[in-house]
Amino acid sequence: MKKITNIIIHCSDSLFGDAKLIDSWHKERGWKSIGYHFVILNGYRTKNNYNVKDDGLIEKGRFLNDDEWLQNNEIGSHCLGLNDTTIGICLIGIDQFTMSQWKALVNLCIDRIKKAKIQPEHIIGHYETISGKQQGKTCPNFDVNFLRHCVKCENYLAAIPSNII
Q: Are 117 and 7 in contact (CB under 8 A)?
């Protein structure tokens, strides 16, 4: 059992999907199940089939309880070298995300930093990790500094960047 140190933000690099689809993709790679703890939908579970009820919906991936520790059955598979101390959150999309996704992401991050007892500075993009840099990752394809800022302030919706909505 290890202390949660960070939340790592990812994107699916696809225009559609959900936790079930990502689970199948990850199993095809030989993983035991979906690597992320949470997936935030953009409304498109399948190609060209938008459902407003799914836009911003948070689906659970790998099991995660509500404390500040990762037990063996909670360890994700989303960032080489950091899986045993981090929570993985994946946004469905490539480089444009909906306002509903953004609100869900900020609120989920606020909730998880309280439960994990970490600071907003410990929310990082996959591209900011050592393995992400080595692999040339750009995921989640937005400046995570802005996300950290939004988590810290109450009126974050006032300055959402154009690639989010």
A: no
Pick from 130, 129, 134: which is nearest to 144 by CA? 129
Spell out the residues 6+ positions from residue 96 whose beta carbon is closer than 8 angstroms to its own: 163, 164
158 CB-side CA count, 13 A: 5
**Across residues 87-112, what is the average pLDDT?**
96
What mean pLDDT is predicted for residues 49-58?
Answer: 97
Own/partner contacts of 150-157, CB < 8 Å, gap of 24 or more, are 150/106, 151/106, 151/109, 151/110, 151/113, 151/120, 151/123, 152/120, 156/106, 157/99, 157/103
CA 86 from centre of chain: 11
Long-range Cβ contacts of 48-51 (<8 Å, 24+ apart): 49/16
Contact assessment for residue 63 and residue 46, using Cβ atoms and an 8 Å cutoff: no
- The letter for the amino acid at 40 is I
Q: What would the pLDDT profile of 65-91 be if each residue is shown by its tens digit?
A: 999 999 999 999 999 999 999 999 999
Cis ω for the linkage preceding 120 (within 30 of 0):
no
Helix (H) or strand (E) holding 54: strand 49-60
